[in-house]
Amino acid sequence: MKRFLDLADLTREEVLALLELARRLERAPQPQALSGKILGLLFLNPSLRTLASFQAGMARLGGSSFVITPGQGTWQLETKPGAVMDGAAAEHAREGVAVLASYCDALGIRAFADGKDLAADLAETRFNAMAELVEKPLINLESAINHPCQALADWKTMDDLGVPRGGRFVLSWAYHPRPLPLAVPAAALHMAALRGMEVVVLRPEGFALPMALMDKARRAAGLSGGSVRETDERDEALSGAHILYAKEWGATSCYGDAAADAALRARLTGWCVRNDWFGRAAGDCRLMHCLPVRRNVAVADEVLDGARSVVQLQAYNRLTAQMAVLYRLLKGI
Length: 333
Ligand code: CP
Hints:
Elements: E1 3-4, H1 12-27, E2 38-43, H2 49-60, E3 64-68, E4 77-78, E5 91-92, H3 93-103, E6 106-110, H4 118-122, H5 125-131, E7 138-140, H6 148-161, E8 168-173, H7 183-195, E9 198-202, H8 211-224, E10 227-231, H9 234-238, E11 243-247, H10 258-265, E12 286-288, H11 301-304, H12 311-331
Parallel strand pairs: 1-7, 2-3, 2-6, 4-5, 6-7, 8-9, 8-11, 9-10, 11-12
The structure holds phosphoric acid mono(formamide)ester.
The site of phosphoric acid mono(formamide)ester (CP) has 9 residues, from helix 2.
């Protein structure tokens, strides 16, 4: 494995092998496995879990890491090709990313969506412009429409909990005061479909996931025996559900139009996950969320602090899953 940019770049069997490696490293730690190796981490957007879990994972495998957050002690970084750099950014990614890659054995990059042009974000324009500058092993730490590290951790979390492979996985839109990117819903949708689950996307009108993402998930479901559909009927969607995966995202019907998005979401504050959402779900239906989560806005205290919530296990599994990714990328076995 040379790059970890999208779970869809791997076969289902390769994903299962990566998950088995994660379990093996969890059972039998290898504190010298990556001795002398260096991971570079470039964060163009904030993080708690991704940043800390990659640094911790690298250290637990005997390697080390450095972190660059442009504009915070380092030069601001311009990422647009052809930009006239007469603004705040003193360095362009064409030099900066290539320089960072020359210092390390593997590089991770986080670059969220611009959130203005859906076609450009779906094409991963910003991330790909940087990725093509890197010859070394490369990790997607969250791009415009992908978060493969989160997806791998989420798959492992469901395996750890014994969630049936063919169980019902409801990816539900949740309220947030601002339009958030499509990366996590897109990655979770594809992951659950590839796992072989009965995936239901529950979302209000105006928030349907782009056709390209639904089609990609349907192709994955076709390989695994799963299925993918969407609805705005909450009770029906959650009937018999094994997983309620809550996530906030921006209106796709008016992508990039902040005023239209705000007008749409203003009447959707009721999409805050509460205990009564689980009335028709399986008795052991779990609440998943990638975090960070706005309490009592996207998910209520009563759910996050209740027995259904597995958000802490998901966050812990960022460490175990990513250690497997680092091991595979840097040891090559
Ligand atoms: N879920 C996730 O990626 O968390 P961070 O944004 O804190 O890294």
